Amino acid sequence: MLRVVLAEDAVLLRAGLVELLSRVGHEVVAAVGDAGELARAVDADRPDVVITDVRMPPGFRDEGLRAALELRSRHPGLPVLVLSQYVATAYANQLFAGGSAEGGGLGYLLKDRVGEVSEFLDALDRVAGGQTVIDPEVIRVLLQAADKPLLRLTPREREVLALMAEGLNNQSIARRLTVTEASVVKHAGNIFMKLDLDPAEGNRRVLAVLAHLRGEQA
């Protein structure tokens, strides 16, 4: 069971998420509708994980995202799963560039992913467990923007890179692609060599991939 603080200004979606999380055994200790309430709820309840929309009242720009980053600076290691209505790589970049130094799980998902209940709940569990989770559609956009330097990779290596950037480990990538884990390890080694990336495991590996993709868009 996870203790969750939920911040979502859309009343119906907020109620639906509370129902979903409660049904699978999590406790929503606070469900709020703006960034100020989010900050107060986290300070008061110290949840296991925060779920927040990017755009929140009063400005409906990036209030939820900025609140999440501020909360992670006050509560280092606080796991945060950010939800966004649209693919906005600038928001994803801001989250992972500004929040990775504090440690703890980080996630960025499109709201459409909530409808894929098992995927959403798996992402929540992974973020709460300290992992990095990124929506596949965001990764697809980043890869397209960085297409030219990625021509050094084979088609299979590009598939492995995309799944690696989503936060999957070698075992999970092997299951997704129906190959052996040894094959994934070999492909990953080739990727890191060709792109001059740090081959560290876990979140550092994901963040290295994201840093590369962000850099190629500059």
From TrEMBL:
Keywords: DNA-binding, Phosphoprotein, Transcription, Transcription regulation
InterPro entries: CheY-like_superfamily (IPR011006), NreC/VraR/RcsB-like_REC (IPR058245), Sig_transdc_resp-reg_receiver (IPR001789), Tscrpt_reg_LuxR_C (IPR000792), WalR-like (IPR039420)
Ranges where the Response regulatory domain occurs: 3-126
4-aspartylphosphate, modified sites: D53
Xref: SMART domains: HTH_LUXR, REC
Residue ranges constituting the HTH luxR-type domain according to the UniProt record: 146-215
Pfam families in the cross-refs: GerE, Response_reg
PROSITE patterns, per the entry: HTH_LUXR_1, HTH_LUXR_2, RESPONSE_REGULATORY
Alphabetized PANTHER family for the sequence: TRANSCRIPTIONAL REGULATORY PROTEIN NARL-RELATED, TWO-COMPONENT RESPONSE REGULATOR
The protein, known as: Response regulator transcription factor
